[in-house]
Amino acid sequence: MNFEKHCWAEVDLDALAHNFRLLQQHAGSAAVCAVVKAGAYGHGDGIVCRTLADAGAKWFAVSCLAEALHLRSGGVTGEILILGHTDPAYAAQLISNDLTQAVFSGAYAQALSENARAAGGRVKAHLKVDTGMGRVGF
């Protein structure tokens, strides 16, 4: 049986930029991080990131190393934070692509550090705190 497609998403990029600027205004001097994991939730990470960067976004968050590398290969030059786990063995890729890794335990931080040293560099880290949702974090 064939099903007709009756749904679609229309993304108003002007509204996206406007809303980002409003959030940034309310945040004051704090940087606002645009979470664009899963292809900007299926809306096209390339165009969404370009729109947000033009609106002033400096930080973008993704779920995994593959998504971060996809953004870099697509020309995203801002800071990229990986929210999920990246195997410490990929520390060299984190370093060479100027990526920030969320760190959620002392053991994980130690393993990233050891692999980064072996690669001749340092991994930028973001301390992940469990705020009560039961997800990963200190």
Shape: globular
Mean pLDDT: 93
Radius of gyration: 17 Å
Name the poorly predicted regions.
none
Q: Determine the strand fraction and express it as a percent band.
A: 5-15%
Q: Strand-and-helix sequence, N→C?
A: HEHHEHEHEHE
Total helix count? 6
The quaternary structure here is single chain
Find the structural class using helix and strand composition: alpha/beta
Q: Main β-sheet: number of strands, strand sense, barrel status?
A: 5 strands, parallel
Secondary structure: helix percent: 40-55%
Q: Please report the distance between the alpha carbons of the first and last residues.
A: 50 Å
Strand order of the largest sheet: 1-2-3-4-5
Q: In total, how many beta strands?
A: 5
Structure explained in plain terms:
The chain is an alpha/beta fold and about 140 residues long. The protein has helices spanning about 15-25, 35-40, 45-55, 65-75, 90-95, 105-120, and strands at about 35, 60, 80, 100-105, 125. Strands 1-2-3-4-5 form a 5-stranded parallel sheet. α1 packs across α3. It is globular and about 50 Å long. The termini are far apart.
